[in-house]
Design brief:
Length: 128
């Protein structure tokens, strides 16, 4: 047995031994993130066609929604994820000017940075 413990003779000098490994330094790489988000929501609109029909059981209504521009209706009722990111960025920047930070100045700066440069790759609103 060698002087270094339970290692075989000469192992303490091996370059590939775990205790001789040097951790690589972090390097910067450019990547693109693309995510698809979905969320069921309720919207209100009067932009539909009301059709009233009668049968042997009585009168009934049918709502024709085939001509509704769902994106417009959604945006009239809710914020888009990109709008929420922009609002968060504004809140963070305004609070930072007032001296209000979240956890630490570096964390607040990181959040502001994370809110920048988002693009809308695809955007669709469909009726359930």
């Amino acid at each position: 047995m060698s002087e270094s413990g339970y290692y075989p003779p000469g192992a303490e000098f091996a370059d590939n031994a775990p205790y001789n490994q040097v951790e690589l330094q972090k390097r910067e790489f450019e990547v693109t993130i693309s995510q698809t988000l979905s969320k069921p929501v309720t919207v209100f609109t009067n932009d539909y066609n009301l059709e009233i029909d009668c049968d042997e059981d009585g009168k009934y209504e049918t709502l024709d929604t085939s001509d509704i521009a769902w994106k417009d209706v959604y945006e009239d009722n809710h914020y888009t994820p990109i709008q929420l990111i922009q609002i968060l960025k504004l809140i963070l920047e305004e609070n930072k000017k007032k001296g209000v930070i979240f956890r630490s100045p570096g964390f607040t700066d990181d959040l502001i940075k994370e809110c920048k440069n988002w693009c809308i790759d695809d955007y669709e609103v469909v009726e359930n």
